[in-house]
């Protein structure tokens, strides 16, 4: 758990980048508004996490899953976020699988290369 209340806040640089990407060019946001958005986002995340944790506990689990977060979004009636969240979760799973497959392929290629090198060394003797 966080030692200080400030530890629960999102990093200002991240919040600023997200806000700037969301606004049209030429539109600025004041320091107070940026702080308010950061605080609201932090509170929202804590609320979703708490709700998802309750869902996980009902399922007799200690780990919150992506499905728990989706159910939490439904439970707190933020249905407009369901589709984008489900898409983001699918994209995340897909990218994780691609990374895993690439790692497996690299390891297999390295193993194959070592076997070929071993055979070449044996033939040279």
Search tags:
single chain, 125 residues, mainly alpha, Histone, subunit A, 74% helix, 0% strand
Kindly state the percentage of residues in helix: over 70%
For the sheet with most strands, the description reads: none
Second rung of CATH, namely the architecture of the largest domain:
Orthogonal Bundle
Following the backbone from N to C, one meets helices and strands in this order, namely HHHH
Calculate the terminal CA-CA distance, rounded to whole Å: 62 Å
Q: Which term fits the overall shape?
A: elongated
Radius of gyration: 23 Å
What number of structural domains do the residues give? 2
Overall description:
- With 125 residues, the protein is mainly alpha-helical.
- The chain folds into two domains: 1-77, Histone, subunit A (Orthogonal Bundle), CATH 1.10.20; 80-125.
- It has helices spanning 12-22, 31-58, 66-75, 82-124.
- α1 packs across α2 (31-58) and α3 (66-75) packs antiparallel against α4.
- The chain is elongated.
- The termini are far apart.
- The mean pLDDT is 87.
List the helices and strands and how they pair.
Blueprint: H1 12-22, H2 31-58, H3 66-75, H4 82-124
Protein name: DNA polymerase epsilon subunit 3
Subcellular location: Nucleus
GO biological process, one term: heterochromatin formation
